[in-house]
Amino acid sequence: MRQKALAVLAAAVLGLSACAGDGGAGAAGESTLRWAVTLPAHWDPVVSGSGAQFRILSLAYASLTEIDEHGKAVPNLAQSWDYNDKGDQVTFHLRPGLRFSDGEPLNAAAVKAYLERAKTQENSALDGDLTSIESVTAQGDLDVVIQLTQVDHQIPLLLGERVAQITSPKAAQDPAKLDQSPVGAGPFVVTELVPGSHVYLRKNPDYWDAANIHIDRVELQTAPDAATVVSGLKTGVYDFANLTASQVKAAEAAGLDVVFQPGFNASNISINVNKAPFTNPKVVDAVRYATNRQEFVDKVTFGYGKATDQPFPPEYLAYDQRSANRYPYDPEKARSLLAEAGYAPGQLKLDLVIAGQTYATASEIVQSQLNAVGFDITIKVDPNWEKPFFAKDLALSLYGTTGRESPVQTLTAHFGPNGPLNLSTPYQPEGFEKAVSLARGTPLDSPDYAKNLQAATRAGLESRALVFTYSQPNIFVKSRKVSAITPIPGQIHWTGLKVEP
Amino acid sequence: MIRRVLRLTSGRIAIGILGFIAFLAVFGPILAPQDPLEGTTDILANPSSAHLLGTDYLGRDVLSRLLDGSRVSVLGAVQVALIALVVGVVPGILSVYFGRAFEWVTLRLADTLVALPFLVFAVAVTALLGNGIPQAMFVVGIMVSPLFYRVARAATLSVARSQYVEAAIVAGASVGWVVRKHVWVKVLPPIAVALANTTGVGFVIVSSLTFLGIGVQPPAPTWGGVLASELGYLSFQPWAPLAPTALIMATVWACNLLADAIRDVTGQAGRALLNTRKVADGSAVTA
Fold this sequence. Notes:
The complex is a heterodimer.
Chain A: H1 2-19, E1 32-37, H2 45-48, H3 53-57, E2 65-67, E3 73-75, E4 78-83, E5 89-94, H4 108-120, E6 133-139, E7 143-148, H5 155-158, H6 175-178, E8 188-194, E9 198-203, E10 217-222, H7 226-234, E11 240-242, H8 248-253, E12 257-261, E13 266-271, H9 281-290, H10 293-299, E14 306-307, H11 331-340, E15 348-354, H12 360-372, E16 375-381, H13 386-390, E17 396-401, H14 407-415, H15 432-440, H16 449-460, E18 466-468, E19 470-471, E20 474-478
Parallel strand pairs in A: 1-10, 1-11, 15-16
Antiparallel strand pairs in A: 2-3, 4-5, 5-7, 6-7, 8-9, 9-10, 11-20, 12-20, 13-17, 13-18, 14-19
Helix pairs in contact in A: 9-11, 14-15, 14-16, 15-16
Chain B: H1 2-7, H2 9-31, H3 62-97, H4 99-115, H5 118-129, H6 133-160, H7 163-170, H8 175-211, H9 223-231, H10 242-266, H11 268-281
Helix pairs in contact in B: 2-3, 2-10, 3-4, 3-6, 3-8, 4-6, 5-6, 6-8, 8-9, 8-10, 9-10, 10-11
């Protein structure tokens, strides 16, 4: 009788297990990556927009191109591309037999539908990046012909992980649903998504490069407090996590692998030159000369970053050496400029509005540096900071970029008349448009490419809307179970990565 | 009552600690050896003669920040207690005399306030009215007031039904006179206990909110804020959270100790205890 009862109980437990969702534990012998990370608020790449979320979305979506270790565009969903002679039309040739995780074919029509949606959807965060695209035509199943509004050799870089993570056109018919139930053709398929808690993914057998994906399962778990990430890895709760610079020593002391992934990151002080007192160029110059970049490097990045006065780190191709250190730290000069602008010390009261913890330390440094030369800065933490920042309603704020594959896209995002990172739109520095146009029109393999790109940077740096401060690498921590990560700037490529079961 | 509290060891300890904290609240910013807002290049430094409690992530002197932050923490806690006192005691007493409708409404209001999570509510209010301790503490004070309401009402009920009060009313005494002459004396001791307790609760709430970065704008120092920032750098200074934690714990403990001491000297058991001690000292005889 007792044995019978036990058998019934066992059957019931098995039955319930079968009914349950993806409970979080992989099968024995499976290779599982447990990643502690800030979960994306959006899973539709068209809406997701800025930030480092595209790195996480790359689990579920594959992009048209990707970049290699040198930042050069290499094939992904598109196995090749070619420009017409004039350079105002580019054709991407897709791999044959591509398929989304919902079974829909990933063909030229699907890419066309994605790009058109990214250009036209009301809440698209990408429309500003696609101004060079005039029209998209599907030529047969495999060729996507993109007609450009201008000669633009940046398109293969542009249509990489950040802008062209292709979504299933069938799923995209309901964009709100897609935003919480991703359907792509990436290396993994989402099996369970609980917003704010966790996301479970399984290897996608239909991924075009599935043979090089060695992880069976990925578990994204909400990142704990920065101070407890290391103990989470040490005790085996996670295998992989993003790490703040302050925790690097603790991670190394715990015997964990700290990975300094190169990146295009740069942080800045955003100024609105359309609002007083920044309508006066002398006040802007006072901010420029009051900024001691090394203090950010020492106190925010704990020495792991670099001072930069441009929207990328100093070693980047587009970094213009001729513009380097144009406004050196000179508090005396800043004080006299403020006096020339008609402000006595402490008279100029300004709010520095920030989003929250991300820029807390940096904001305190900015405050102390500006107050030291005569400003009176009050830090305001606004949880809804995005709204006034992107509506360009703030006078003074802080922001940063994780960078873009296309350097021209980085420049236009910061200095262009519609740039999302330009707090002073529609203001743009004189000569910038022409310089950018020349950089766009230069083939990436041309000997003039670097020169023209740097000239565009130089023109952009005439902008009074941004004071760049520091750049820091993307820091990750992993357990020894996880194999080495290929140093792709700003990205994580899942091919080749292994996790011991 | 204060004299009687001071006769108890626990009362002397509590008043000693709270007196020290009050001293810090008044003179802390003057006593701070360095500018609590000015950073140096010496970040996350260990304690030394230059920085007795070390420096924080921006190289600021931690001792100076704790001293400077005392005022915000103390004022916030006192604000909670005083608002709760005013908002709770008056309707608590009046609910006994102002008829059934008033009694019913105030009781339901008190029940409603007790049901609300005050920390979450305080966070919501700062989001609505702006990030500041006064507005957050005002709301918390109102939400804690049912404690005073119930204490005052219970004490008033016990007096209002006693024969000497009924006799006074029959003899023509007004409600105001009865409250002044008879009720207030009876209500005061439990309110004093509640006040000490609520001040301790106020310290916990102020510290919790400032720990979360709510109520003050950076870089203004607070005990909770200093504790939060120290926790982020445990790998550099594992001992660093001890100082702000000890300050918060000692203050809350002293408030509770004071509440116990007041209860002891004003309650029957407390009186007996005091009288027993007096006999032992030879300073008095048992009544």
